[in-house]
Amino acid sequence: MEKLIKFIAESIVDNPSEVTVNKIEKNNSLTVELSVADEDMGKVIGKRGRIAKAIRTVVNAAAAKEGTTVKVDIK
């Protein structure tokens, strides 16, 4: 999952070298923390959170195939 999130984020931002992804596993769920440069935060979140919602939707669809749940936090 973290590779998918990193790929999507790097495709959107101007500074792909500053994209970091950390994962935290608990039981059968996974929390992924996405960090980007301050100037790229708006690009990852999008207007009214549309891009962030789309990222979460794609990741949840991929996680459903694996039988897990994923929470994406943008920091």
UniProtKB/TrEMBL annotation:
Subunit structure, interactors included: Forms a complex with KhpB.
Known role: A probable RNA chaperone. Forms a complex with KhpB which binds to cellular RNA and controls its expression. Plays a role in peptidoglycan (PG) homeostasis and cell length regulation.
The organism of origin for this protein: Halanaerobium praevalens (strain ATCC 33744 / DSM 2228 / GSL)
GO BP field: cell wall organization; peptidoglycan biosynthetic process; regulation of cell shape
Homology family: Belongs to the KhpA RNA-binding protein family.
Gene Ontology annotations for the cellular component aspect, listed alphabetically: cytoplasm
Subcellular location: Cytoplasm
Keywords for the protein's UniProt record, in alphabetical order: Cell shape, Cell wall biogenesis/degradation, Chaperone, Cytoplasm, RNA-binding
Protein name listed in UniProt: RNA-binding protein KhpA
GO molecular function: RNA binding
PROSITE patterns with a match to the protein in the record: KH_TYPE_1
Classification via CDD domains: KH-II_YlqC-like
